[in-house]
C-alpha cells in the first residue's frame, strides 16, 4: 500500500504504535523485523499476519508463559567464525548458549501446542534445536559468560595445581615478608605482584640484606620490590602452570568454536524464525493492551467500524494513568486513579449491503475541538493497522477493505524551504489525490477549503470532493463550510456527519452521528465566553436570517437526536437488565422445579419403602400366625407390631403436617413485621417491594444486594428493599425421645435448641473459632446433618482459618464452600459425621 505524503503514518499517530512495539520486542532481531514492517495490499499476506498475531495474543493472554527470552543477534558472530581456525571467547559462546536454550524452549512450547496455534507453529517449525551443541557449550561456559573451571579434565587439574602452588607461594612470600618486617626492612606488611611474580616491598637501603631478586623500584626510589629466593622456584612453577592453562583454554575455545561453526547453516534460519516470533509477540502484546481483535477483510471496498477506539488515544491515556500512579504516594491514591475512557466510533463507509443509503464520501462538520479530526484519524489509523497485519481495537462485526493507497491531508503543512504556504501545500496534496486516487483508495482531508477566501475555498473544496467521488475513492473530509453540508445532503453517495455537542454545557461528547450535519455553535460559544449581546446580535444580522435559522435548526435537530439516542440507550439498558433478571429467575425457577422433583422423588421413595416395610411385616405376621397355628399369644404379639407400625407412619405424617404449619405461621409473622428505621446492613431482615416473605441480606453492594428467601437466593436492587429487622440467629428445635428400660418409647426429653447458621463477619480469628466450635457442638447434640458459617469473602484469612480448624475435628465429615447462589466463598458448609 502506498502512502502519501511519505509521513502520512506519522500524521495519523502510527509512530506512537511503532514506539510501543519497539519497546515490547525482546531482541534486536525482533526490532529489526518490526522496523521493516510496511503496509500491504496483499490479502494473503495481511490475513496470514492477522491470524498469527491473533494467535500470539491468545498465547500471551490465556496460555502458559511464552519462553520468549531475549536472544542476541548472533549473525555477526556466525560471520566471524566462518573461516576455519577462527576462535571466539567464552562470552561469545555464552551468548550462543543462551540463544540455543531459548530456541529449544520456544520450539518445544509451540510444538506441543501446534493444534491450538497452527500458524505460529508454521513459523517455529523452522527452528532446529541443537541439543548436542547446547550440552557441549553448557559444559564449557556458565550463564555469566565465563569459562567453567571443569570445562575439561586437564583444565580442572591445572586449576587445582595452580591454586595449590599459589597457596604455597603466598605462604613462602609471607614468611619472607614477616622476617623483613621484624628486622625493619619492609615498607609495607602485604606482598604484591610485579611482572606477574609475587614480591615483597623493601626499603632501598636494605635491599642487599634480603636474599632475592629485584623486580621493580617505586617512583620515589625509596622502595624496591624483591622476589624472595625461597619463592623463586614456586613462582616459576606457577608461571609454567598458568601458561599450560592458557593453552588448554585456547584448545577448548577452538574446539567449541568448531562445533558452533558446524551448525551455522541451521542456526541462521532458526534465528530468522525467532526474530519473526519476537515481532509477533510484540504485536500480540500491543493487541492485548488495546483490547484489539482480528477484523474481517473484504474485497468490496466498504469500511465498517463497530465501536472502534482510537489506539493512539488509548495508549496516551494508559501512559497518563501510569505516570499518575508512579507519582502517587499512597496505595489509596494509586487505586483512585481511573483510566480515561475513549469514546467509541461507529462508522459505515460504502457498505454494499445498504445500497439505498450507501455512501463512500463523508463530510463531517461541527464546532472546533469537537472531535472531527480525531474521528477521521481513527478511521485512517485503523485502516493502517490492518494493512500492517495488526488487530484493531474494534468490536466484532468490523470489516476493512484492502487499500492500494492512503492519502492524508492533515495539519499545517507550510514549508519555508519549498516556499509553500499552508494553502499551497494543501493544493499540492489534492493535486496528487485527484491524479491517482481510485476505488481502492482512502482519502482523508482535514479542514477542507480553509486557508483562503471562504467562498472560493468552499467552492474549491466541493469541486475536489466531486472529483474524488466520481473516481470512487473512499473519502472523509472535515470542514466548516456550510455549502459542503448542502452538497453532501443533495448528492447521492455523499453523506453528512457530525460530532455530537451538548448545547446545554457547550461541551463536546465526541460521539459521531451519521446523516446529521453539525452546527458550529459559534454564537453560543461566544455568548458563553462573555462576548456582549450587541456584538453577537450584529453578527447574526450580518450572517443573515436564513443562515442563522439554518444553524439554529441544525442545533435543535441535533439536540433532539441526542435526546432520542439517550432514550434509546436507556431503554436498551433497561431491556438488558430486565433480560438479566428474567434469566436469573428462570434459572432459579428451574432449580426450584428440580428441587421439587427431587423432594417428590424422595417422598415417593420413602413412601414406597414404608409400604414395602409394612407389607413385609404383615406377610411375616401372617406367616408366623400360620406357623403358630393361630396361637393367641402369637396373634396378639403380631397385632401389637402392626399397631406399632401404624403409629410410626401416623407420627411421620404428623411431623410433616407440623412442619408445614410452622412454615405458614412463620410466613404470616414475617408478613406482619413493620418497617425498621436505619440503613440496611448485611445480615438484616428485609422485605422485597414492601410485601411478601422476609429474607436475609447475605451481601450488600452499592446498588444491589444478595437476599436469601429460605432456600432461594436472589439479587435485587437495594432501593426495592425494606428493612424489618436486624441480624438473627437461625436455630432448630430437636426433641429426643426417652427410652424406657424395655426399649420402648417414653416421654419426650426437653427440646435441644441448635443454630443452623452463624454470622462471624468482622470478627477476628481468635474470636470466631470458639463460636464455630459451639455451633458444631450444638448441631451434633441436636443430630443436625450440616450447618453454615457466614464469614464473608474479604481477604480470605478468616475463611481459611475457620476451614482449617474444622478439618482438624474428627466429628466434621466435610468442609466446602456454598453454592454460588447461596453465598459462594463467603459461606462455609460444614457436614457433620
- Uncertain regions: pLDDT < 50 for 5+ in a row? 413-420, 545-550, 736-751
Rg (CA only):
44 Å
Secondary structure category: alpha/beta
- Strand residue content: 15-25%
Which bin fits the share of residues in helices?
40-55%
Average pLDDT for all residues: 81
Distance between the ends: 74 Å
The biggest beta sheet reads: 7 strands, mixed
What is the 3D form?
Answer: flat
Number of helices, where a helix is a run of at least 4 consecutive DSSP H or I residues: 23
**Main sheet: which strands, in order across?**
1-11-12-13-9-14-15
Please count the beta strands (DSSP E, at least 2 residues each): 27
Describe the structure.
51% of the residues lie in helices and 17% in strands. The chain has 23 helices and 27 strands. A seven-stranded mixed β-sheet has the order 1-11-12-13-9-14-15, with helices on both faces. The model is unreliable at 413-420, 545-550 and 736-751 (pLDDT under 50).
